[in-house]
Amino acid sequence: MDDGAGITAKIFPRIAEIDSSAWDACANPDPARHNPFVSHAFLNALEEAGATGERAGWIPQHIVLENASGSIDAVMPVYLKTHSQGEYVFDHGWAEAYHRAGGRYYPKLQCAVPFTPVPGPRFLVHPGADTTTAEKHLAWVAITLAEKVDTSSFHATFLTQGEWQRAGATGLLQRTGQQFHWHNRGYETFDDFLATLASRKRKMVRKERQEARDAGVEIETLTGADITEAHWDAMFQFYLDTGSRKYGRPYLNRRFFSALGAAMADRCLLIFANRSGLPIAGALHIIGGDCLYGRYWGCEGYQPCLHFELCYYQAIDYAITHRLARVEAGAQGEHKLARGYNPVITYSVHWLADDGLRRAVERFLVEERRAVEESNDVLASYAPYKKLADAEQD
């Protein structure tokens, strides 16, 4: 696919067919802000394990832009989707409305990291290329591909705010959502963080941490070569238990966890709660350049406050110790607010082939963006951090 300006677009059905160093030069040019989920290693682990592919309904259609010299200027992780599962930006209502009107919503084209509601770059541009031009080319190629394979739509989810603004300026529909992230304000210790909380919230966190410890467990933290297949066995069972209870059908298979460990063990952080030397609960986090990303968790039965300890407080402790700027603990969850996580807005853009559906969705998104912004403002006002009067009393 050539646009006549010396830029050639190629579509790849397997990311393994794309040079990993060339992909990562576009996806993560700055090690200090490395996003593991758009890395070649992570996306390839999904494909090699069979977590994506035709049977999973995530059929890779990765876009690569080559310049006149044959070098890669930009890439985009893209999938042909036969459903809307594993995306965390919900468009099931759009699909149902279009079906009732006689349309066919699936397949659709999706730019995303499968099963991973982590904000980050999706229009992956080499630092030597012009960002605005390359992003426009990527969007044009994606929409052209969507039309060529007769899909209803193209979606790019969990973008950066800059990508969202630039894509919106080209006419793509803009959508927002909400998550809760913890921000490191230069703390030296966990107690420094606690000192910034209002007294009642500070006592609650201490009580929850103590209650988790009172379960008679020892906390074990593992990364890199210390993670064995036995550890992945345990983590996978925790993942299955939580996934079955919350979502009905877990997306990932056991092979993926081994593939992840083989590809990027140094970016994997397992935190287990052990009793009598055996794990009874565990959480998997992924280490980025400036962020710790919480991904999966599970527990044998009900253990009071272990979820908060392994997923939130241990993550905060790790981020402080390793001077990471943020902890992103996954999608949704207003309960995170009371534990120091602040509401943030997430971003996605959408193209719909049918004019009638597009107009209806566009009207909906205007109201939804307003509601998200209002919710963010209200929830931010309930953040557990000290107000001026509280600080003076302390």
Describe it:
The mean pLDDT is 94. α8 packs across α9. It is built from twelve helices and 15 strands. The strands form two sheets. The chain has an eleven-stranded mixed sheet with strand order 2-5-6-8-15-9-14-13-12-11-10, sandwiched between helices. Strands 1-3-4-7 form a four-stranded antiparallel sheet, with helices on both faces. A hairpin with a 3-residue loop joins β12 and β13 (291-299). The radius of gyration is 22 Å and the shape is globular. The chain has helices spanning 20-27, 40-48, 92-100, 131-148, 161-169, 190-195, 199-213, 229-246, 254-264, 306-321, 355-381, 388-393, and strands spanning 8-12, 58-60, 62-66, 72-76, 78-81, 108-111, 124-125, 153-159, 173-183, 218-223, 268-275, 278-287, 291-299, 326-331, 342-352. It has 394 residues and is α+β, with helices and mostly antiparallel strands.
Strand content: 15-25%
First and last CA, distance = 65 Å
Q: Give the spatial strand order of the biggest sheet.
A: 2-5-6-8-15-9-14-13-12-11-10
Tally of helical runs = 12
Task: Please provide the ordered H/E string of secondary-structure elements.
Answer: EHHEEEEHEEHEHEHHEHHEEEHEEHH
Helix content: 25-40%
Shape: globular
| Whole-number mean pLDDT | 94
Rg = 22 Å
